[in-house]
Amino acid sequence: MTKTPVSSLIACVLAIISLFLYNNGVIEDNIGPDKDNYQKMKKHEPVDHFFLQRSWPDLKPDIRAFDQALVSIKNNEANRVTFIPGFDHSWQLEGPSNIGGRINTVLIHPTNTQIIYVGCATGGIFKTTDGGSSWLPIFDDQSFLPIGCLVFEPGNPSTIYAGTGDPNISGFPFIGDGVWKSTDDGSTWTHLGLTDQRIVSRIAINPTNTLEIYVATMGIPFERNNDRGLYKSADGGATWSQVLFISDDAGVIDMVMDPSNPLVIYAAGWNRIRNNEESLGIGPAAKVYKTIDGGATWTILANGLPSIDMSRIGLAISQSNPNTLYAAYVDDSYSFHGIYKTTDGGLNWNLLPSNGIDPWFMGGFGWYFGRIVVDPSNEDHVYICGVTLFSTIDGGQNWIAADPSGDTHADKHDVWFVNSNTQVLATDGGLYRTDNAGGSWFDIEDIPNNQFYRIVHDPHNPGVITGGLQDNGTVTGNSTGLNSWNKIFGADGFQPIYDPTNSDNIFVEIQNGGIYASDNGGAFFSSATDGIDNSDRTNWDTPYIMSAHNSSVLYTGTYRIYKNLTGTNALWNPISPDLTDGIIFSPRFHTITTIDESSVLQGVLYAGTSDGNVWYSPNDGSTWNDISLGLPDRYVTSVAASSSPLNANTVYVTVSGYKYNEQIPHVFRSDDNGTTWISISGDLPQVAVNDIYIHQSSNGQVIFVATDGGVYGTLDGGFHWDRIGDNMPILPVFDIDVDPAVNTLIAGTHGRSAMTYPIDSILISVGIGDELTEGTIDFWPLLANDILNFQLGNSRNGTIKVFSVSGQQVLFRNLANESTGVLDLSRLDAGTYIVNYRSNKVDKSIKFLKY
Questions:
Q1: How far is it, in rounded angstroms, from Cα 514 to Cα 521?
Q2: I need a surface site. Which of 470, 491, 519, 794 has the fewest CB within 10 A?
Q3: Quick one: 262 and 350 in the same domain?
Q4: How many Å apart are CA 725 and CA 84, to the nearest integer?
Q5: How many CA atoms lie within 13 A of 137 on its CB side?
Q6: Are residues 606 and 691 in the same domain?
Q7: CA dist 102 to 148, 402, 471, Å?
Q8: Is the pTM of this model over 0.90?
Q9: 740, 765, 790 - which closes a domain
Q10: What is the C-alpha to C-alpha distance for residues 403 and 386, in angstroms, rounded to an integer?
Q11: What residues make up the domain containing 407?
């Protein structure tokens, strides 16, 4: 159970600089007038990309619609009694478990330190009972898996409280639905409310009256409202009252309770708004607030604390001497400002010397960190979290790097003191333990909580998966080595591409379109972006593809399409004008998001954009036709050309976006290269769709889509959809692929690593891969206009009949040694019909919809 160590220097470089690596591996200098602000807020980029996808063309995400979609999925799962044939199997976890993902909070049993709970940024809650050798998820039945804080009920560690939502507020939809409680060590959970508060940053419980609970919340980070601040319950969470409200753009990011007097509480305010037109992380709310009467009245503490606008504040209180507190401040440039200390319960504060602390240890994105932690048995032993970790043993007079050997991943979020020598550290790359007070650390988890952006099968190694991870590079492996996946490239990982004709040729990608190529099987990669203008607007998840007709030909998109004719010796040339609407939101937003080429007709190209445009080129980019008419003005997540020669003009489009009480279709098909579109969303829930895969042998009947709530599939071309599998949590899946060599569907989840699903029984249920001597029998499209195609595999005799749903025969065809053909539906009214093929050996019926 090992992870590759990352030195402190490399960790800092990856966290601070790699977000700016662009096409040819240099730092981007052409960011425009907002360059300085962009650099300060660079850690936003991954999740800004996420929630911008889901909000265009609106200024902020529609949280009600998103919540409605996830609740609908959860209810459907709870009430489902039947599955589409083949959809009732379990997903196989493929890993990785050894790479390490984002962990926000850690909780260790007070009397049995082998029992540890961790809360992940997007992957739920995991528990170990053997000190980290093995872990199990314990929160998977819930709709919102981002976890911000975990606490035990004082005196009763079998009762656990979980606050949902990511308090680092790195974007939509890493929000939560309030507070949950378990009374059986995490086996089952009960919801305690505060759904509208969305980000729970801290929970404190009165040790003398455990029915009295305090909850610090940040509210919805995308809009101004009054659902923020500190809440109190006097009845164990049955009801809540807001006892501290600061402003409609500020919440409470941290809170500590005096262990000797639960009426005394300290709270830290933070101004925080993030949407498509505003990023607020600094303001006058950055103060420390104190109550001595359980929240009835509050005082803003001063006497040595900053009075100017600041950013995030972290608080820590000594358990051994509650009059001693520490407050860590982030300044108005999102850098480390300093640590203040009081020894008289907040009456007076002194700025501690920063001797030994790297002033840049928060990397310019200090809003992402806020944890300062005091040894419960020693008020002078303190940790402060940032990109790196620092500690003091003399009350803050002198500080040292607490990971001198670089054993841990960058970006620290929580520390738990087991004792003065042993601590456990939560990072963006997993969980670590030290037994010598930070002298050295070792990894103690193999939790599969990685966030995939893109994922593919390796065509040269059946069953092997390769994908790009948030903050953890490009990795490869499968379940045979669940804990031994290999990292083949660094930074944030995106689309990998294998040359199917030459196993030595591999492409990988980092953020913002940094493409790298290897011609020696991945032993060495070099930049592969020559010719792409560094000043071009690029998407965080920049699309690029390899032609199915010639593996030396590749296409990529900035705000325009580029083509490369030289394979790994990449030299790109633009072949399109600006395909976006120009700059409306920000330079980073208006980009190309998806590209595809027909695998039937070489040079037939399609492209989609972040601002709702879809384009078609019939001549390899010489001309481009806008085919957006008939599609919703939403972020285009995927465009996919049909791979069937019988449907060479068919193309599919998926979109993101949420709008409350509006039925927005998210999956579309055109049979005329985008001249007209029809929705094939059917009964798919109102959930954003991130990717689409059309099984090439099904003539468009078997389709899989990756959504914000898991993976869905249809066997009838989009008339009826169902969620695939019985064990995938409700979480985003960004990318899917099929490995034809082993007949598995691959899902790249954003929070629970990679999973695969066996599709043999799905394909057999629709006559693909069955062993009928009569061969495959198929009708399509099942959302038909004037024509219904049929393919009977072998040449046949027999009859084809079409019936209305009432049983009336409305069409008849007598076959004379035919294998393919069409049925003319032009005389039929719109509605649902049943088509039947019958011979002396076969009797098969399929339902279709005429529109």
A1: 19
A2: 794
A3: yes
A4: 10
A5: 23
A6: yes
A7: 11, 20, 9
A8: no
A9: 765
A10: 12
A11: 99-441
